[in-house]
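Support request, please re-run this one:
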Amino acid sequence: MVFEENFSVAPMMEWTDRHCRYFHRLLSNSAVLYTEMISADALIFGPRHNLLVFNNEELPCVLQLGGNDPKKLALAAQYGQDYGYSKINLNIGCPSNRVQSGAFGACLMKDPKLVAECVKTIQNNCQIPITIKCRIGVDDMHTVQGLDNFVDEVSEAGVKLFVIHARKALLNGLSPKQNREIPPLDYNRVGLLKKRRPDLKIIINGGIQSIKEGQDLVKKFALDGFMIGREVYKNPYILSSLDRIVFNSEVKTKSRYKVAMEMADYIDNFMKKDEGNVHSVTRHILGLYNSLPGAKEWRRVLSENARFSKNGDILRFATDNIEDFIHSKSLILA
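Re-run finished. Output below.
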């Protein structure tokens, strides 16, 4: 399947699971969605089906893998291809201690030859495209020569698309959360990479707060797309305007109410299969009514009751209440 990544929702550990992705797909037909990072070892030795199963509605969906063993990554990628994922993305940007202890993630930016070997081995076993998500550098790596050398080496192995988080990763002394906030953003560095390598697809990521801000960066640096993570998770309804603004789609924007009702139906079907609990779905949609009157109460009702629910009725109940409240407030203001 050939598709452009004009816009994508970032892979986020413990957040972008299949329920979250289904929710995001209801808001946008065109956004490219990513799985959480899944280690190659987890797919080979762990509960593979539970890790890989997804809803076909999520497509196009990219499987993000973590690891440093070319053969294991190739086998994991083959599993992903067999399940129907659209692309394989290698995580060369995660700074967590667990990832560092496994010698993969951001620390692999220091070993572009190994990353290139991983890419080649995957390509020998898979037909779907391989892409890279990385930082502009790591620790004391020079953000000019270091990033250029990394991209040149890995692109020579066949990678044509790089998602660049426009921050360094500082592996010693900073937590993963601090690594998302403390190292300064350097969007100019991503722009310089694109200018030097116009033959590559370069997607910018890191600190982007809105669709407009992402579009402005793409235009300023002649980039190929942008990726937003945490802002989409906190304020998911920003995706509702994405298809119209970014993709010039004439599809009518869904109301929050319609999205919530569709998610309630999804919960009904999910619970019939006895695969989990309602909270595992509703926890991802708590930002749907952010900034609107009654949003705090809507979140409270779901947070306190979803664990004990057997179907989507708790979501229907909470949503009917907030819609009635918003309507009453608008009548008073009128």
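DSSP finds 16 helices and eight strands in the chain. The radius of gyration is 20 Å.
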